Amino acid sequence: MAVSSKGKEAVKAPPTRILVAEDSAVCRKVLEDALANQPYEVYLAKNGEEALAGFEKFAPDIMLLDWMMPGLSGAELCRIVRKSQKTYTYTILITSSTDRNRVVEGLDSGADDYLMKPVDTRELLARIRVGCRVIAMNREIEARNAQLEQAAHTDHLTGLPNRKAVEEFGVRQVHAAARQGFPVWVIVADLDKFKLVNDAHGHAAGDEAIKRFAAVLKTHTRSEDMAGRIGGDEFSLVVSYGKREAILHMVERLRADLAKAVFLVNGHEVQLTASFGIAGNQRATKGTFHELLIQADNALYDAKGAGGNQVRVALEPTNSHNKARGADALLERN
Questions:
Q1: CB-hemisphere CA count at 13 Å for 226?
Q2: What is the pLDDT of residues 209-243, one digit of tens each?
Q3: Which domains does the chain show, CATH number per domain?
């Protein structure tokens, strides 16, 4: 375990993973020996095909590729990797050719650097250290981009997915359902008489009520499904598979659990209820995600019109053009 300069234990970084692809046993041994006492994890491949399989399995940070190999050449392997990689891999081509056109071709194929044979060990290690610095910067950028991506899809009040995330997930699930023939259910939920909570206890209490409802909602959501906040006090769930009876039972249990819970808000006991609308198809989902969202929203308003704290199911597809409330209005409200 590494120790920082302040004396506190720091998490030890995993060793840099290096894939070496060289068809010559002698040259491969030279590279292996050069890396033997270095802080790297090394994977050896004897040809391009073996290197490609190793890339997919080993996920190297750096690749040392001989240019001329049977099957896939180093340059060809470079082009394949650049098209398929999810995280950046620093690539060094190794060649015995002194032709500048070949060097340009290799760099244009996606290589970051090149080495001339016979390989000088000190130069090899120096170029790998450059690669390590580049990879470290790339990993930092990738991590920050992932954080930004997560923030862009997260509702900051509740920590649940936001309307953008719900919509993207719902569209994917409905497309998959159309191809594979499984049902997808869209559920819209809205707190009953939420304005009274704000008026009686203030907006901070309203925010707390929304967070409490989100927590209850999260406990009833499977990992393969998604529950998110669309806006205001309105939430949506996208649930894959499941028969109508099972979905109705799940939502009814969610409604009952919320109704029987008592929350303390600013020292006051507050009881929350919610109304729910469900849309889907027993055999396989028909229509687009937006159409299902509209159907679920109309069922929600039926539940509210019946007094609230109820669940309503809309099984039959409806013509979204005949509805006053559209999916865009639902997603963009609040």
A1: 23
A2: 899 899 999 999 999 999 999 988 999 999 998 88
A3: 16-151 (3.40.50.2300), 163-332 (3.30.70.270)
For tokens 């099972």, the residue is 246
Mean pLDDT of the chain: 85
Where are the extended beta strands (E) located within the chain? 16-21, 40-45, 62-66, 90-95, 113-116, 184-191, 226-231, 234-240, 262-265, 268-271, 274-279, 311-314
pLDDT at 269 > cutoff 60: yes
Query: What gap in Å lies between CA 220 and CA 250, rounded to an integer?
Result: 8
φ, ψ (nearest 5 deg) of residue 325: -95, 125
Q: Which two tokens stand for residue 154?
A: 């997260």
The contacts of residue 267 (CB under 8 Å, 6+ apart) are none
Each residue's pLDDT tens digit, 183-203: 899 999 999 988 888 777 777
Q: Which two tokens stand for residue 187?
A: 């559920």
Q: Is the torsion defined by CA of 275, 276, 277, 282 positive or negative? A: negative
